[in-house]
From TrEMBL:
It comes from the Bacteria. This is Polysaccharide deacetylase family protein. Transmembrane segments: none annotated. It comes from Streptomyces hebeiensis. Residues 1-26 form the signal peptide. InterPro entries: Glyco_hydro/deAcase_b/a-brl, NODB_dom, Polysacc_deacetylase_ArnD.
Amino acid sequence: MARHRGRGWHGRVVAAALGVTALAAATSVWTARADPAGGRQPGARASAPAAQDRAPAKVSAEIAHASEAGDRGVNITIDDGPDPTWTPQVLRLLKDNGAKATFCVVGPQAEAHPDLVKEIVAAGHRLCNHTVSHDTTMDTKPEAYQSQQILDAERMITKASGGVRSQYYRAPGGAFTPYSRQLAASHGMRPLGWNVDSRDFERPGADAMVATVKREISGGPTVLFHDAGGDRAQTVAALREVLPWLKQQGYSFGFPVR
Ligand SMILES: [Zn+2]
């Protein structure tokens, strides 16, 4: 991963993302889907509280990969925004393809662009807490710092959304700790991993991103893209191709289990 060093936190995200992908492959998404804490029990969703304006119910602290949409479900996840240039383009493509996604938003970004957060929610997508500072070394930091990063972001996101809470927590770069997973879960945020890294941060070209998704989607349903942190034109172009392709293959767009 040495080639990623020195690029700032975006580079570190990619490096850590690959590690998480490898971990996910090793432990298998199918194991995750069989997890009894995965929220797939009959009636589990019916009894789950709405995300809006209620005290959040505790959820599992295990890192989720599976989809509520079942074995042919795909979880599109969009990280690091919202961003006034790229988020509207992503939202338009999702709408055009009838797709729902999970947006892992950074607290100050949400605070700066509350209208975009409200648009995300109004379109039926879900929110995920992606901390305040996007520190990919959070797993080496004191618990007080981890708590501040998660809970301050949650206040920013919930205020920006008009009261709609994050239903997931994704540690920047996958730098989860047992403490941060438990803390997030106790506030109603299921820790969220990923299976397929589009590697859009490396800007390999839209075709390469599409090829990565096509090649790896059979290994697990949760796909990682970004709508901020630089020029995301390739990401938009890749989504324009990959969303219709997924539908053609018989996949449906869903949300990660909670
Ligand atoms: Zn991120």
